[in-house]
Design goal:
Elements (H helix, E strand, L loop, with lengths): L1 H28 L15 E2 L2 E2 L5 H15 L2 H24 L7 H8 L19 H6 L14 H19 L2 H10 L1 H11 L11 H18 L19 E8 L3 E2 H8 L3 H7 L7 E2 L2 E8 L3 H14 L25
Antiparallel strand pairs: 1-2, 3-6, 4-5
Helix pairs in contact: 2-9, 3-6, 4-9, 6-7, 7-8, 7-9, 10-11, 10-12
């Protein structure tokens, strides 16, 4: 009798386990959780120019880019965190230059605001400049300095370039496409194909996707809460608060001397000024960032330190700079 009772209990437990598997565990594994699906807007513009979403091919391209972006949660969260640091300056400069605010999303797609981003084609920095184009737009690129890594300077160069592209094509969408694949290719393809709209010109697939990625980024970052992203201001990266100092060097100087003049560390100076590639600065004129509130101290200390410097030699253990202010990491790697 006991054996029969035990058998019934065991069978009941097994049945209960099966019910739990069918009602709780399997929906979470085999059948999947309820994934939110988002509708694209009926109308959309890029830089004030309408996107023809009534065309099925255009709608599908945007839909694919949007899906690949909106569910890439770690990437979207980093976009939101970094955009709090870089958008204010970029929005200000776009407004001052009377350029479309949507241009800010180009930088997100180019590098995700990663200062040290380098592409397989050797494009460098937050705006992904090739060396030849960077030099054409006034950026210094040599063995000691690479201003493609400086956000403010590379931003000015990128906005100059995009302005020229707009003057060439009279259309912001084509200008942005040209920023990706080059103005010559876009111009040649327009001439050969006889089309005038970006959405009618056959361009490299990477470039076609590029525009739709920008549109997807715009949709997400303009209304992140709509897609389930809620970040408080405390969780984002604040804009950098620095002093800019200008000075000239008549000889090569170790970066540690610059740090000493500012009362900070070698590491802080290098990270506040990622365009500096080496441990020393050659002779020339410089405009660098230092910790906020240190400009007066820097201007007072630098001449004396330069007069006692022995030609850019590395500091030894006896005269190693003592940290007065750690500062902080100010670039996104």
């Amino acid at each position: 009798m006991k054996d029969l009772f035990g058998f019934v209990v065991r069978r009941s437990r097994l049945a209960l386990c099966l019910v739990l598997i069918l009602t709780v565990i399997m929906p979470l594994t085999l059948w999947g959780t309820n994934v939110p699906l988002y509708d694209l807007p009926a109308e959309l513009q890029l830089c004030g120019e309408p996107v023809p979403l009534n065309r099925r091919d255009v709608w599908e391209m945007l839909d694919q880019s949007f899906v690949l972006s909106v569910y890439n949660t770690d990437q979207v969260i980093l976009w939101l965190k970094r955009s709090s640091r870089y958008f204010p300056y970029l929005e200000k400069r776009l407004k001052e230059r009377r350029m479309p605010d949507d241009i800010k999303y180009v930088a997100v797609v180019e590098s995700s605001f990663r200062t040290y981003a380098v592409s397989s084609a050797k494009a460098v920095g937050p705006w992904q400049f090739m060396e030849k184009t960077a030099k054409r737009y006034g950026l210094k690129v040599n063995k000691q300095i690479d201003e493609r890594l400086n956000f403010e300077k590379s931003t000015e160069a990128a906005l100059d370039y995009l302005t020229d592209l707009y003057k060439m094509f009279g259309n912001w969408t084509l200008a942005v496409a040209s920023y990706n694949c080059g103005e010559e290719r876009v111009s040649n393809n327009i001439g050969i194909q006889g089309a005038q709209s970006f959405y009618d010109v056959d361009l490299p697939l990477e470039t076609e996707r590029y525009i739709f990625r920008i549109l997807a980024v715009k949709l997400i970052l303009a209304q992140p809460e709509k897609y389930g992203y809620y970040l408080s201001r405390e969780r984002t990266y604040p804009p950098l608060d620095v002093d800019r100092v200008e000075f000239g060097l008549s000889k090569e100087v170790h970066v540690t001397l610059i740090a000493r003049a500012a009362g900070t560390t070698y590491k802080t100076i290098r990270e506040m000024n990622p365009e500096i590639k080496n441990e020393t600065l050659p002779r020339g004129h410089y405009s660098l960032s230092i910790p906020k509130g240190r400009a007066e101290q820097f201007n007072k200390n630098l001449p004396d330190l330069l007069s006692r410097d022995r030609g850019g030699e590395k500091p030894n253990n006896k005269n190693r700079l003592k940290t007065l202010s750690e500062g902080g990491v100010v670039t996104i790697r």
